[in-house]
Amino acid sequence: MATLKEVAKAAGVSTAVVSRLLSGDKTLRVGAATRERILRIVEALDYTPNIAAQSLRLARSRLIALIVHNVSNPVYAEIVSGAEAAAAARDSALLLGEAASLETGSNRLIDLIGAGAIDGLVLQGAGAATDRALAKAVRKRVRTVMLQVETDADSALISLPDQDAAAIATDHLLALGHERIGCLATAPGLRFSLARVAGWRSEMARHGLEAPDSRLVWAGSDLALGRGGVKRLIDQAPEITGIVACNAVAAIGALAGLGDLEIDVPGEVSVIALHDFPLADYVTPALTTVRMPLAEMGAAAVNLICGDADLAKHHVTIDRPAPRIILRRSTARARG
Amino acid sequence: MATLKEVAKAAGVSTAVVSRLLSGDKTLRVGAATRERILRIVEALDYTPNIAAQSLRLARSRLIALIVHNVSNPVYAEIVSGAEAAAAARDSALLLGEAASLETGSNRLIDLIGAGAIDGLVLQGAGAATDRALAKAVRKRVRTVMLQVETDADSALISLPDQDAAAIATDHLLALGHERIGCLATAPGLRFSLARVAGWRSEMARHGLEAPDSRLVWAGSDLALGRGGVKRLIDQAPEITGIVACNAVAAIGALAGLGDLEIDVPGEVSVIALHDFPLADYVTPALTTVRMPLAEMGAAAVNLICGDADLAKHHVTIDRPAPRIILRRSTARARG
DNA sequence: ATGAAAGCGCTAACAG
DNA sequence: CTGTTAGCGCTTTCAT
After folding, report:
1. Which of A155, A229, A276, B205 is the most exposed place for a label (fewest CB within 10 A)?
2. What's the pLDDT tens digit per position in A153-172?
3. Which residues span the domain enclosing A257?
4. Residue A198 buriedness (CB in 10 A; 0-12 / 13-18 / 19+)
């Protein structure tokens, strides 16, 4: 592996010239012949700067860490995808961590964070791994942005238009003539969960309709929780004819749960969900959703880190593109 | 950010002692009092070694890069998940790259590879980004392992028991009394695609049945290709009563394609697919699959890199756990 | 039982 | 126009 020194020697110049030439230093004045020669040698020796030395010197690594709950969840995968693309566009690389594997013992990624070896950290909120990473990051003043769940730290918070999206979903059901609408919520206590429920509640209220607690169930964001949750919901509120599901993966679980109960969708109950992903079009009935800018959220997080905005108390909502309904088959006009 | 030097000064010892103490050097003999004092200071100053300096010195980074086509594909997501977990267990961190974002121009991840700044590289085969990464890796002698598709480089190849799995799938259909069985294959020309088709062919042959080219369609690994592919297949071979789909995502597309054609599954045609993921249980009809060790493949790749086996011409097949049928509703006994 | 010092490869300030 | 030099923070050998 060729070093700067070797290149310099071979070209008969000093390392400084080569370094500045290669990094495109404007103030460097070098003869065309010398420049040519150096470049040729760089090529011939297949020289590439040593990254460790470079980041040691520059005190930055162009490495960004992203910690998510679980890549296999299609909703989270889309966030990862957006973040990765943005990182690439910003000429940074993405370190990926999944919550589960970070919980235990020593971990290189957590160490990197703790050592301030990364330029920024993006955390999908809530969870022990997250907290641990966050604690380390805060101590080392690593630029951190939280997705969807705030903390008391100096980190930025990026959220989705949760309340709007839930209102849009509710409104869709309302427009179809439904009046008794339940809400299958995500995990209790989290900012985005509350916002979505608030969207449902306020839209119901705006139409002078009830949104009692009996028509609300806190579930989660996976298939099993959706399946179980919807059964509790139907049990508590058998009168409902429409459901706003706060997470599309859970909604697919809910479709199955309703199937278990022999309730026809959308014949007896309409279901609309927040978030969208390709497979939502391939379940039966195809799931009507409200698409939210997930990839954009991942990208925005990375861009925020790469920018130089002060992250403390910085709170952005990603509203472009705006949430929009993807009309499919799981919602229908209310009967009678 | 505290440095070694600061810790050493505060403890009134040299940096060497602190360094060796912290890295658990067995040959170091320190007085218990000194040791205590140093440790306390490390704690108080919240010292963590500078990673860049460390990797500069040690010439290794405990960073492993993984390049996949697309994290949003649930099959690939599972590979990523397995790799991430293994990396964490090996105290390494995972750099994730998606093919699409690596195609264009300069890219940090590709640079890191080209600079030999990572300890290893795992590549999901076939694609321009892959080739570029590979070329760089080869030049810098980065330990590389290919997933599913071989190259002529000095990299290891990890594959799945593709042929077996396809044979198991075919056999399942055969056992249900199907005799005219088609194959919806993945992208043409790739090792694993060929192996799966070979599994179908050989199992048919073993039972003295035909597997003509008219009953084979090369499609791909996503929803749209599966949907389109199955229509071509039915068009070419309307007589088939069973389909071995070489990829479960494509198979879900195929289910939709068969729906478009108003062909009942499994009433008229049974479908069994290779690979499994949670949502396969939630489509209609729930997809019968042959599960393959995807996460294990990702993990094996990372473990291979972390180990010290010679990777040249190293070819392993991940056969634990062995492929096994997940029986659901998309396959049924042949009529008559 | 502990310290001094040489580098790892690079960049940037300064000096010609 | 180009070279010298002083570190960045760490590990490790060799002295003491």
Report:
1. B205
2. 788 999 999 999 999 999 99
3. 162-292
4. middle
C-alpha to C-alpha distance for B162 and A251, rounded to whole angstroms: 33
Q: How far is B214 from chain A (nearest CA, A)?
A: 27
A109, closest residue in chain B (CA to CA): B93
Q: In the block, which residue shows the tokens 């593109």?
A: A321
pLDDT at B27: 82
How many other CB atoms are there within 10 angstroms of residue B31's CB atom? 8
User: Touching check for B27 and chain A: CB below 8 Å?
Assistant: no
CA of B53 to C1' of C11 (A): 15
Work out the minimum CA distance from B206 to partner chain A, whole angstroms.
Answer: 35
Residue type, B303: N
In sequence order, what are the beta bridge partners of B96? A94, B66
Q: DSSP labels for B250-267?
A: HHHHHHHHHHHTT--TTT
Beta strands in chain A (DSSP E): 63-68, 93-98, 120-124, 144-147, 156-159, 181-185, 216-218, 242-245, 270-274, 288-291, 315-317, 324-326
Which range (A41-50, B114-123, B256-265, B273-282) has the least confidence? A41-50
> Which residue's alpha carbon is at the shortest distance from the C1' of D7?
A57
Is residue A98 within 8 A of residue B71, CB to CB? The reply is: no
Q: What does pLDDT average to over chain A?
A: 92
Specify whether B176 is located in the same domain as B245.
Answer: yes
User: Which tokens belong to B8?
Assistant: 């050493």
pLDDT tens across B174-184, in order?
999 999 999 99
Half-sphere exposure of residue B172: CA atoms within 13 angstroms, side-chain side = 28
Q: Does A98 touch chain B (CB under 8 A)?
A: yes
Q: Are B177 and B210 in contact (CB under 8 A)?
A: no
Q: Give yes or no: residues A46 and A91 share one domain.
A: no
- Write the DSSP string, A262-314: T--TTTT-EEEEES--GGGGSBSSPPEEEE--HHHHHHHHHHHHHS----TT-
Query: Mean pLDDT, to the nearest integer, of A51-72?
Result: 92
Same domain as B283, residue B187: yes
Query: What pLDDT was estimated at residue B244?
Result: 98
Q: What is the pLDDT of residue B77?
A: 97
Q: Are B326 and B291 in contact (CB under 8 A)?
A: yes
The three-state secondary structure class of B94 is: strand
B240-256 pLDDT, tens digit per residue, is: 999 999 999 999 999 99
Q: Which nucleotide is nearest to A59 (CA to C1')?
A: D8
pLDDT, position B136:
72
| Integer CA distances (angstroms), A206 to A209, A211, B328, in order | 7, 11, 45
Q: Say which range, A78-92, A144-158, B207-221, has the weakest mean pLDDT.
A: A144-158
Task: Give the distance from residue B52's alpha carbon to the nearest chain A alpha carbon, in angstroms.
Answer: 5
Per-residue model confidence (pLDDT) at position B13: 87
What is the tens place of the pLDDT at every residue in A266-304? 999 999 999 999 999 999 999 999 999 999 999 999 999
Q: Does A329 touch chain B (CB under 8 A)?
A: no
- Whichever domain contains A19, its CATH number is 1.10.260.40
pLDDT band, residue B134 (cuts 50/70/90): confident
If asked whether residues B45 and B88 sit together in one domain, one would say: no
B13 touches strand D (CB under 7 A): no
Size of the A and B interface in Cβ pairs below 8 Å: 182
Interchain proximity B277–A77, CB inside 8 Å: no
